[in-house]
Amino acid sequence: QMQLVESGGGLVQAGGSLRLSCTASGILFSPYTVRWYRQAPGSQREMVAQITSRGTTEYADSVKGRFTISRDNAKRMAYLEMNSLKPDDTAVYYCTIRGLWGQGTQVTVSD
Question: How high is the pLDDT of residue 16?
Fold first, then answer.
């Protein structure tokens, strides 16, 4: 069964950090780009970061310098390290590979 599972979300104070994980099963992982998206209430889903099979990364301007995306192909996992979190980062975070989406993990940043 093809599946992506996100974990690591939670409630954190502004300025804090979280590390999200995305675990893939039932799909090829290493050849493909992994992307993290987020969706806040009442807002469209937006791409936060992506990492190619070669490790090239891109970030949304709103998270540059604060978030770091990485991957471990041997473990079939991707990560999103989030530092200096702001209330505007509050959203459900999703990982996606080739059109397959996880169920999301909630990140809430309090003032």
Answer: 98
